[in-house]
Amino acid sequence: MTGAALTLAPVQFAAADTGTSRTKTITGHLEPGAADFVYLPVDVPAGVNRISVTYSYSKPAVASGLLSNACDIGVFDEKGTALAGKGFRGWSGGFRTEFFISAAEATPGYLPGPVGKGTWNIALGPYQVAAQGMDYTVSVTLDYGPDGAAFRPQYPPQHVAGRGAGWYRGDAHLHTVYSDGKRTPEEVAAGARAARLDFMISTDHNTPASHGAWGPLAGNDLLILTGEEVTTRNGHYLALGIEAGEWIDWRYRARDKGFAQEAQRIHASGGIVVPAHPFCPYVACRWKFGYDDADAVEVWTGPWTADDEYAINSWDSMLVQSVRTGGRWLPAMGNSDAHSAPQVIGFPHNVVNAAALSRDALLEGIRNGRSWIAESADVSLDFNVTAGGRSAGVGERLDAAADARVTVTAKVSGVPNGVVRLITDEGQIQQTTLPATGEGTSTWVTTPQLAAYVRVEVRHPMTDGTPSNGTAMGTALLLGPMAALTNPIFLGAK
Questions:
Q1: Per CATH, is 5-144 categorized as 2.60.120.380?
Q2: CB hemisphere CA count around 494 (13 angstroms)
Q3: Most exposed residue of 168, 201, 289, 426, measured as fewest CB within 10 angstroms of its CB?
């Protein structure tokens, strides 16, 4: 089941001689409350080797606070528009006003391949319609002739040989010119290396078109995994580690069944589902599908903002709920969501404890919460708990008696004058300030009956230079931007 859709009458093209082209233009008007997707069918005859599309829509002036017009575009080929079907051929959202597809090449965001005979569908996505309505114009050009040489994607490998167990740094939310980013894949890979990352995951919006460009850019120093940012009308999520070339559909709302179906497909392929920037305030951006089908949640996206503060507090409440119910807990992730300069690739990124530098090992580490988040590779954090000769690290559980004395240790470097916060299900329990060198160790002794879990936040000083103040009882916490954040260590028998 997909979001509301409207299919118009088909546009007919007749056969033509090789070397010729034919253009037809479609115009229309949409009122406020239009369907989520408007399909413009185009009957493509045999003998076509290229389809080109341009579009425009009216942008009337509106009063401050009212919605203006905004309309996405994409295309499905003769295989149809069924949810998660085989007909998807590309999507550029509102980032481009034109695209083309041929056997040999296509506009970034679109999939090269033969222009087969049958009914293609230009898909409009009018996600904002002003009170005046939206006038649209779509021009379709068909070129006739034999196909050129077929495009051959170059997919990246899914592991780096010889890299065993260890902590690996990676940014799992990155965009290129294949969706709404301004960086080429070459520039993104170079940025990941400059950030001293071990891995990165490509997540262009609603399309796998960039997957075939990453192969030559991967190397023994950088594992590149394939993914997608799935951009629905009720929030965005990351499909991480999906098979190269695999496409995840986005045409559904929280009231539909599409998300559960697509999450199942992602899991079946070995990938994971991660709601992205869940408190983003923009239209169609805030997460509304719940977390039953999620494997982790992105609580820190790019430079630290109020949205992230909301996300971390909501996530912490979810940890408490998991303790109360005995159910599973949802690990936290942090990613840059970098699109273009000055957004910094790797700010922040995940530091994952994995059995190898491979897709399966990294996703397992993320899924099990064996990770923490750093604003850059200059920040390091070693966090563990010990009791009676036993120890546990991030994402693990220390099985100890309710009254056992547990020593909590957090060793930090790379955050000058930063504040180290130890946080439990009760809230912040200890705060220490790092010296100007940025290095220090915080320790605390507790018991499982006092603390169901412990996690660490490392904050920068406030923007005016004063230390973060999370100690005042009954007053608002004055907290600087995040520098590092861990997943919890749980204490006591499950």
A1: yes
A2: 8
A3: 426
Return the pLDDT at 465.
Answer: 61
Report the pLDDT value the prediction gives residue 406, as an integer from 0 to 100. 98
Q: How far apart are CA 32 and CA 401, in angstroms?
A: 61
Structure tokens at 477: 């916490």
Q: What angle do CA 339, 341, 346 make, to 5 degrees?
A: 65
Q: Contact 198/358 with Cβ under 8 angstroms?
A: no
Mean pLDDT along residues 262-278: 97
Does the structural domain 153-377 have CATH classification 3.30.930.10? Answer: no
CA–CA separation, 240 vs 242, rounded Å?
6
Domain over 380-494 is classified CATH 3.10.620: no
The string of DSSP letters for 346-406 reads: TSSEEEEEESSSBHHHHHHHHHTT-EEEESSTT-EEEEEEEETTEEEETT-EE---TT--E
| Residue 473 confidence (pLDDT) above 60 | no
Burial category of 213 from C-beta neighbours within 10 Å (exposed 0-12, middle 13-18, buried 19 and up) = buried
Q: pLDDT of 99-149, one tens digit each?
A: 999 999 999 999 999 999 999 999 999 999 999 999 999 999 999 999 999
**Average pLDDT of the segment spanning 31-60:** 97
Instruction: Give me the pLDDT at residue 470, please.
Output: 54
Question: Smallest Cα–Cα separation from 384: which of 367, 372, 401, 366?
Answer: 372
Whose CA is closest to 447, among 479, 388, 491, 399?
491
**Contact call for residues 203 and 226 (beta carbons, < 8 A):** no
- Between CA 13 and CA 460 the distance in angstroms is 62
pLDDT band at 468 (very low <50, low <70, confident <90, very high): low
| Residue 294 buriedness (CB in 10 A; 0-12 / 13-18 / 19+) | buried
Closest by Cα among 245, 254, 307 to 276: 307
The whole-number pLDDT of residue 462 equals: 84
Q: How far apart are CA 28 and CA 426, in angstroms?
A: 58
For the chain, what are the domain ranges? 5-144, 153-377, 380-494
Tokens at 276, concatenated: 């992205």
CA 132 from centre of chain = 34
pLDDT score for 4? 77
Residue 296: closest CA among 274, 276, 311: 274
